[in-house]
Design a protein that fits this description.
The protein is an alpha/beta fold and 285 residues long. It contains 12 helices and 8 strands. An 8-stranded parallel barrel has the order 1-2-3-4-5-6-7-8, surrounded by 7 helices.
């Protein structure tokens, strides 16, 4: 009896233990959810950062349309184009050996025409070598999702606060606090699963609602500002390492403060050049 109890205990430990994947795939993420292993996800937009993120063991790298804000300085994600996204995704793909690389389809490339959505997704996959695409919305983009998936391209959904719809909402505040919107979000999550999406991002919604959604679907649910009851977490890399300092939402944990460190280092370099301290005798040929 004692042996059987020990065997069962070992089986339970093994079922929830982290598996070392040589390459993360969409199936890997589903398996991770089934085992109760949390999924880590960060953004990256260039070769150097992507190489660091991949080397650190992050499961999913999102080439987000947040590049519009972080890399180009736009107020919203709307101005970034398909060509821009392909450029960033291509750089990331060249750096990555393990992580699954997901690329945002930018605003205007999939919302109104499912054929245009497929053409956009195909361009990203063929020209960048990405592994999957991500789209924002539910029922209103169902035809686009199905057409892309039917072509063999994996799709990640995105519900809750959807930045591409910022002018519709008019604010970046928490979504789905009201009952009707919460009901619609749960229905959309089920619809995304039924349509074939391999995962869903939930952004800035109540934690209790996010957990309810994660428990109701078999595909992974990755949260940003959606509490800890989901299957994984995503943050914008530049926010997480403190390269940006003006964005301070409640859900953001800064693991470094690179903004201040870089200001100090660059300022010191400037002083050393001006004072002729750099380069010294050991730093020249």
């Amino acid at each position: 009896m004692a042996f059987l109890l020990l065997l069962r205990s070992n089986q339970m430990i093994m079922s929830t233990a982290k598996k070392n994947y040589k390459r993360i795939t969409v199936k890997s993420l589903v398996d991770m959810k089934a085992r109760g292993e949390k999924i880590s996800m960060l953004t990256a937009y260039d070769y150097t950062m992507a190489k660091i993120v991949d080397s650190a063991g992050i499961d999913v790298i999102l080439v987000g349309d947040s590049a519009s804000n972080v890399m180009a300085g736009h107020e919203t994600t709307l101005p970034i184009t398909l060509d821009h996204m392909i450029y960033h995704a291509s750089a990331v793909i060249r750096a990555v050996k393990r992580a699954l690389v997901v690329v945002d389809l930018p605003f205007g490339t999939y919302q109104s025409d499912d054929k245009e959505a497929l053409r956009s997704a195909i361009r990203i996959m063929k020209e960048s070598g990405a592994h999957a695409v991500k789209v924002e919305g539910g029922q209103e983009i169902r035809a686009s999702i199905r057409r892309i998936i039917n072509a063999g391209i994996p799709v990640m959904g995105h519900l809750g606060l959807t930045p591409q719809s910022i002018y519709k909402f008019g604010t970046y505040t928490v979504r789905a606090k009201e009952e009707q919107e919460a009901i619609q979000l749960k229905e959309d999550a089920k619809l995304l699963e039924a349509s074939g999406c391999f995962a869903i991002v939930l952004e800035k919604i109540p934690a209790t609602l996010a957990k309810e959604v994660a428990d109701s679907v078999s595909i992974p649910v990755i949260g940003i500002g959606a509490g800890g009851g989901v299957d994984g977490q995503v943050l914008v890399l530049h926010d997480m390492i403190g390269m940006t300092n003006e964005f301070n939402p409640r859900f953001l944990r800064r693991y470094m403060n690179l903004y201040d460190d870089m200001i100090e280092a660059i300022g010191q370099y400037n002083k050393d050049v001006k004072s002729k301290d750099f380069p010294n005798n050991d730093e020249q040929y």
